[in-house]
Amino acid sequence: MSAELTTRSLRLPANTALIWTLGLFAITWPWVGKLPLPTLLAAIVTPDTDHFDQIMIHYAWAPRLAMAILIGAGLGLAGAVLQQILRNPLASPTTLGVESGAQLAIAASSLYFPSLLALSPDITAVSGGVLGTGLVIALTWRLGFSPVTVILAGMVVSFVLGAVNYALLLLNGEFLGHLFIWGAGSLVQNDWSQFQTLWPRVVGLALAMVLLMRPLQLLQLGAGSARALGARVIALRLLALALVILMTACVVSRVGVVAFIGLAAPALARMLGARTLQQHLFWSTLLGAGLLLLADAFAQLATQWIGGSLIPTGTTTALIGGPILLLALRGMHNNHHSPTHSSELATLALKRRSLWFPATITLTLLAAVVVLSLSWSPSLQGWQWKSLSAWPELWNWRGPRLIASVTAGMILGVAGTLIQRLTGNVMASPELLGISGGAALAMVALSLSGMSVGRSGQLVAGAIGAGLVLTLLFLISRRHRFSGHQLLLGGVAIYVFMDAGIRLVLSSGDTESMKLLNWLSGSTWLVTASEAWALVVMAAVLIAAALLCSRLLTILPLGEGSAQALGVQVPVARVTLLLLAALLTAAATIVIGPLSFVGLMAPHMARMLGQQSVVRQLLLAALVGATLLAAADYLSRVILFPNQLPAGILAAVIGGFYFFWGLSRHAQR
User: How many CB atoms lie within 10 A of CB 343?
Assistant: First the structure.
C-alpha cells in the first residue's frame, strides 16, 4: 500500500519533469550540434558579436524560450484559478471567449482606432476579453455555470466573435494582413524588449492570484458555506476573474492566441494527482510552461521540416486541446441544469399544428426575399428597383448565389433535423457537434496538400470528414446513451482541430489562404451556375432519401429493443442515417462554410411552429433554412455596399444571437 502511495505521489513531479525535459531537449538540440553547451549558455547573456550563431541565440532563440516559459506559466495559472472560481473543469480563457474577444478587439482597433494600440495594446485586449467573458457569464449565470453549458456558450461566443473577426480580415485584408500570423499565436522574437515588457505584468498578476489562494479555498465548500464563513463570494469571483482576463489579455496583445494551455495544464495536473488548491495552482503553472515549451519545440521542428514556412506556436498548442478535453471530461457527469435533451428544452411549443399555414407563410417570405434579391438593391446611383424585364440579365450575376443559398439552407435544415432526431438531442446540429468542422477540416487538408480536385473531389473529402466525425461522436456517446455533454464535448474537440488547421493555413497570408478564408466564411459569390445546379440535383436526391428514412427516424428514438421488435435492423439503420447526414453536411459546407448555425435554427423553428412528426419537421425545416440563408445572402450583399459580407458570416452572427436568446429563455425557467 505504501509503495502504491509513493508511486502516486511521484507521478505528478515525474511527469512534469519529463515534459520539461522533452521540451528543453527538443528546443536546445538543434543548437547543441553547432555550439558547445557552455558557449551556448554564455551566448544567452553575453554573445560574441563576431559569430552569427551566438547573435541568433541571444536575440532570437533565448527570448523565444523565455517567452514560452513565461506565457505558459501565466496561462496555466490563469486556467487553474478560473476553474476554481467557477468550479468548472472546462473553464479556461479559450472556452470562455477571452482570447477570441481580445483578438477581435485588436483587429478592430488596428483598423479603426490605431491610436488605442499605440497607447496600450493591453487595454484594448482587456476590453475585448471582458466582452467575450461577460457574454458567457451573462448567459450561464442562472444555470449555475454548468460545465457543459459554459463550454457550449463559450464556443458559440467564440464562433460569433470569430465570424466578425473574419469579416474584418476579408474586408480589410490589405490593412490587417499582419494579423494572420499574430492570430495564430507566434512566439517569434527579435530581441528581449517584448519579454522585458511582459514579465513584470505576468509576475505581478501571478502574485495577486496567489494572494487570493486562501479566500479561493473557501469556494470549494460551496457559495453558501463560503458566505457563512464571511467570504464575499461575488466580489471574490469578480476580482479573480478580472485577474484572469488581465493575464490572458496581456499575453494575447503581445503574441496572439496561444490556445488551450489554460485548459490543458490544469486538466493534466488534476489527472496526475493534484488534489489541494495549492497543488493545483503550483503544478498547473509548471505544466503550463512545460507544455508550451514542448508545443513551441514542435512548431520550430515543423517549420524546418516543411522548408522554412512559419508554423505558429498557437496552432500546435491548439492541437492538444481536443485530446485534453476528451480526457478531462471522460466519465464526468453534468449535474447541473443544462439545455440538451428535448425533455429539458425551454419554451418550445409542443402543440401539433397543420403544416399548411406555416409552410405558406415561409414560402411567401422566401418568395419575397427572392424578389428583393433580384429587384431591389443599391448601386452607385442609390437604391434602385429593377423591372421584371431586367431579371434575365441580373440572373446571370445573382441567380447562382441565390440558388446556392436556398439549396444549402434546405440541406442544412434537413441535416439538422436528421441529427437531432437521430441523437435525441435538441442542441445537436452539424455546427455545434463539429460535423461541419469535420467536413471543413478534410477540405483544409486538401488545401494543405496542394491538390486541385474540383467541387466533386471536395464533396467526397467533405463527406468522408463529416462521416468520420459523426461516427466518432456516436462511438464516444453510445455508452452514455447519446447524452448532451458527451456529444457537445466531441463537437468542441473537433472544432479545436479544425481551428488549428485553419489558423495554420491562414498564417501564411498568401493568395491560397485568402481563398480558403473566403470559402470558410461562406462566400456565395464564388459559386458558378453549373455548381449551383449540381447542388440542386444533389439536394433533391439527399432530401428525398431523408424523407424515405422518416420511419427509421420515428422508430429509432424509441430505443434499440423497441426498434428491433418493429423489424428495424438498428446497426444498418444507424449507418445509413450517419452516411446521409454526412453527405448532407458536406454538400452544404462546400457552399456556405462550416459555421452558419442554420442546422440548429431551422429544426427548432419548425418544432416551435408545431411540426412534431418527422416528415413535417423535415419539410418545414428545409423551407425555414432556405429562407434564412437566402435572406442572409441578400443582406450580406447590400448591407455594406459596395463591399460584400460572406453570407456564412452573417448567418453565423444571426444564429449565434438566436442561440443566446434560446439559452437566456432556458435560464428563466
Answer: 7
**C-alpha–C-alpha distance, residues 96 and 111, integer Å:** 25
Q: Which of 539, 604, 581 is nearest to 409 (CA)?
A: 539
Phi and psi at residue 378, in whole multiples of 5°?
-80, 155
Q: What is the DSSP string of 573-596?
A: HHHHHHHHHHHHHHHHHHHH-S--
Can you tell me the distance from the alpha carbon of 507 to that of 179, in angstroms, rounded to the nearest whole number? 8
pLDDT digits (tens, 9 = 90+) for 409-420: 999 999 989 888
Please report which helix (H) or strand (E) contains residue 382, including its range: strand 382-385
- Using CA atoms, how far apart are residues 583 and 466, in angstroms rounded to an integer? 8
Q: Which helix (H) or strand (E) holds 60?
A: none
**Cβ(351)–Cβ(333) under 8 Å?**
no
pLDDT at 536: 92
For 405, half-sphere exposure in the C-beta direction (CA atoms, 13 angstrom radius) is 31
Per-residue confidence (pLDDT) for residue 348, from 0 to 100: 37
Q: Which three cell numbers stand for residue 310?
A: 512559419
Assigned C-alpha cell, 112: 479603426
**Is residue 140 within 8 Å of 153, Cβ to Cβ?**
yes
Tell me the pLDDT of the chain averaged across its residues.
79
Closest CA to 593 of 409, 436, 405, 422: 436
From the list 190, 247, 251, the residue with the least C-alpha distance to 63 is 190
CA distances for 351 relative to 190, 354, 610, 611, angstroms: 65, 10, 6, 8
Residues 118-142 have a mean pLDDT of 82
Query: To which H or E segment does residue 431 belong?
Result: none
pLDDT digits (tens, 9 = 90+) for 23-45: 899 888 888 777 888 888 888 88
Considering just the CA atoms, what is the radius of gyration of the chain in Å? Answer: 26
Answer yes or no: is pLDDT of 262 > 90.
no
What helix, strand, coil percent values describe the chain, rounded to 5? Answer: 75, 0, 20
Contact status, residue 206 vs residue 74, Cβ threshold 8 Å: yes
Question: What pLDDT sits at residue 352?
Answer: 64
The dihedrals phi and psi of 383, each to the nearest 5 degrees, come to -70, 135
* Beta strands 382-385 and 376-379, pairing class: antiparallel
What's the DSSP call for residue 376? Answer: E
Q: Where are the alpha helices (DSSP H) in 478-567?
A: 484-506, 511-520, 529-548, 550-555, 560-565
Query: What's the CA gap between 386 and 592, in Å, rounded?
Result: 27
Whether omega before 642 lies within 30 degrees of 0, making that bond cis, reads yes
